[in-house]
Design brief:
Largest sheet: 3 strands, antiparallel
Low-confidence stretches: none
Order of helices and strands: HHEHHEEHHEEHHHHHH
Helix content: 40-55%
CATH topology: Creatine Kinase, Chain A, domain 2
CATH architecture: 2-Layer Sandwich
Oligomer: single chain
Strand order of the largest sheet: 1-5-4
Number of helices: 12
Strand content: 5-15%
Distance between the termini: 25 Å
Length: about 350
């Protein structure tokens, strides 16, 4: 179930209030009609693929087109929940400065944003299981996902030729000739251009447990990007970003990485936080304490995993998972971060 605004928010507070109202409205409907509740986080912890189905309503022709090439009945397609943040750009030069800086940021962002340590009732060996499966979900046509971390680019013409035309031709070659080729949203990298919105869309963040935490992540990314754009940019080789990203998806903040500010992803995230704090508005700073605590203590995946393991000492694993995720349901309803 996707919740999105019809127009950009003018402030973090408006973002929080509007989206929380939407969450409560939807949850009230679900409770009355189905005795069900909404749940945040990046993956449902108990859902099995045999219990799922492919969307058969509006836009179903898109999924029918995908299904001719990809096996949609697998994780990475059916059990993923991401928080997608759109940031506007002003012109071509500004757009590619943002794009290239975000390519670097997104290699490390999952260290803070991971919230999917459990799927199908088992504890994963990846702290960000959603991204682990997401990296593989279109392996039949690799140019669509492009290793998730974007290639540095410098012009719209180059981007459309090297990225959009490439995956469009590759999709057409395997039999997908309608709906998908030429569409910017087919691009499954961690940062993509949404030309109709004149925005860049970030896709590497797991959905958090509550709206306030999503707002905190958006404030962090905006303030960090603002600070990096004010400096002379220094871009790391993409090979380093790819290796570090894969390490972060598996091990989160404790991942051993190659970034010059690092050693561990936690050190890089601390460096990012200092930049974000120095460039945040007073309103954004009200939310950044959530991000600071995630960095200094544990990200949500690590917290969930730790709490489940603790409870599993007194009961079986499934009961422990249910107990912890019921608390996460309450976090979503109360709009209170879970630590």
């Amino acid at each position: 179930m996707e919740v999105k605004p019809n127009a950009p928010f003018t402030s973090p507070v408006e973002f929080e209030e509007t989206m929380q109202e939407a969450v409560l409205t939807l949850d009230d409907f679900l409770e009355k009609k189905y005795k069900a509740h909404l749940l945040g986080t990046g993956m449902h912890p108990l859902l099995r693929l045999s219990e799922t189905g492919i969307w058969s309503h509006r836009h179903r022709q898109i999924y029918e087109a995908y299904s001719r090439v990809f096996n949609l009945k697998r994780h990475g397609w059916l059990n993923i929940q991401s928080f997608q943040l759109n940031l506007p750009y002003s012109d071509e030069k500004n757009a590619f400065l943002m794009h290239n800086l975000l390519a670097e940021i997104c290699a490390y962002l999952p260290a803070i944003a991971a919230s999917s340590p459990i799927y199908e009732g088992k504890i994963s060996e990846h702290l960000d299981s959603r991204l682990h499966f997401y990296k593989l979900n279109q392996k039949e046509v690799p140019s669509v996902t492009g290793d998730v971390i974007p290639v540095y680019a410098h012009s719209f013409a180059q981007y459309k030729k090297d990225i959009i035309e490439k995956y469009s031709n590759d999709l057409a070659r395997v039999g997908v000739k309608a709906q998908l080729p030429g569409k910017d949203w087919v691009n499954s990298r961690g940062v993509i251009f949404r030309f109709d919105r004149k925005a860049l869309e970030i896709r590497v963040m797991d959905e958090q447990e509550c709206v306030k935490s999503d707002v905190a992540m958006s404030c962090f990314v905006r303030a960090l990007l603002r600070g990096l754009m004010a400096r002379e940019p220094e871009f790391l080789p993409r090979e380093i970003l790819l290796k570090d990203f894969n390490a972060v998806v598996k091990s989160g903040l404790n991942a051993r990485i190659l970034h010059p500010h690092g050693g561990t992803a936690r050190k890089v995230c601390r460096h990012f936080f200092q930049t974000a704090w120095a460039n945040a508005s007073s309103e954004e700073k009200q939310y950044l304490s959530v991000v600071r605590r995630r960095i200094e203590d544990d990200n949500l995946s690590e917290t969930i995993k730790s709490h489940v393991k603790q409870r599993a000492l007194k009961t079986d694993l499934r009961e422990a998972i249910v107990s912890v995720y019921l608390r996460l349901v309450k976090s979503l309803m109360d709009n209170e971060p879970y630590f």
